[in-house]
C-alpha cells in the first residue's frame, strides 16, 4: 500500500492540519524519551522480503498501533508489524508546540539517525528543517510529513514509521 502523495494545496484543503518543528515552546505534557522503534529496523527489513501485501494492508488499515517500514523515495509501505499500545493521555493543545528533549506517547515524534528526538504536541502546522530523519511516529492523530525530496507522507494515528534512507523533513501537519 502506498501512502498518500498529494499536492500542498490538497493537503491544506484536507481536514488535517500541518505541523513541522521549529524552535522551542512550552507545554503541559511531560517530555519522555523518544519512542524506540516498536519493532527494530532489522526486523522490519526482514519482514519486507517475506510479508504479503495483504498482511501489510490489513495492518495499515487497522486501528491498532503499527510500525511501518517505508521507502522514502516512493512512500510505499514495505513492511508492517503490530506495535505495543501507547498510553493515551488526552493531552491536546490548539497549536503544534515543540516539546523536549523527547516526545510523549501522543505527540508527533521525529528521530534523527543519531537518535535525537524532535517532538511536537497539539494540532496545527509547523515548518522547519529537521535533517537526517530516519523514523517518526504520528502520535494520537493522522499526521502528514513533507520531505525535501518532494514527497508528502500521511499516516494514521499511532503509526511508527522507519524509512529505508534518511530524509530532511520540512513541514508537519496534523
In a few lines, what is going on in this structure?
The chain is 14% helix and 35% strand. The protein has helices at 8-13, 41-50, 53-61, and strands spanning 66-70, 77-82, 97-99, 108-112, 117-121, 125-137, 143-147, 152-155, 159-173. It is globular and about 40 Å long.
Number of strands: 9
Rg, rounded, reads 15 Å
Helix- and strand-based class? Answer: alpha+beta
DSSP strand (E) fraction? 35-45%
Mean pLDDT: 76
Number of helices: 3
Q: What are the low-pLDDT stretches, counting only 5+ consecutive residues below 50?
A: 1-38, 86-93
Globally, the shape reads: globular
Structurally, the number of domains stands at 1
Topology:
Layout: H1 8-13, H2 41-50, H3 53-61, E1 66-70, E2 77-82, E3 97-99, E4 108-112, E5 117-121, E6 125-137, E7 143-147, E8 152-155, E9 159-173
Amino acid at each position: 500500500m502506498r501512502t498518500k502523495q498529494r499536492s500542498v494545496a490538497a493537503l491544506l484543503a484536507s481536514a488535517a492540519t500541518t505541523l513541522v518543528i521549529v524552535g522551542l515552546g512550552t507545554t503541559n505534557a511531560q517530555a519522555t524519551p523518544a519512542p524506540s522503534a516498536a519493532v527494530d529496523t532489522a526486523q522490519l527489513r526482514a519482514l519486507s522480503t517475506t510479508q504479503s501485501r495483504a498482511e501489510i494492508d490489513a495492518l495499515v488499515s487497522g486501528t491498532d498501533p503499527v510500525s511501518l517500514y517505508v521507502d522514502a523515495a516512493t512512500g510505499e509501505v514495505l513492511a508492517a508489524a503490530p506495535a505495543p499500545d501507547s498510553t493515551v493521555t488526552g493531552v491536546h493543545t490548539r497549536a503544534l508546540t515543540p516539546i523536549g528533549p523527547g516526545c510523549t506517547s501522543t505527540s508527533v515524534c521525529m528521530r534523527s539517525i543519531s537518535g535525537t528526538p524532535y517532538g511536537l504536541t497539539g494540532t496545527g502546522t509547523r515548518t522547519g528543517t529537521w535533517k537526517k530523519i530516519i523514523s517518526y511516529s504520528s502520535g494520537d492523530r493522522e499526521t502528514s510529513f513533507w520531505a525535501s525530496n518532494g514527497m508528502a507522507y500521511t499516516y494514521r494515528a499511532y503509526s511508527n514509521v522507519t524509512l529505508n534512507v534518511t530524509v530532511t523533513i520540512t513541514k508537519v501537519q496534523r
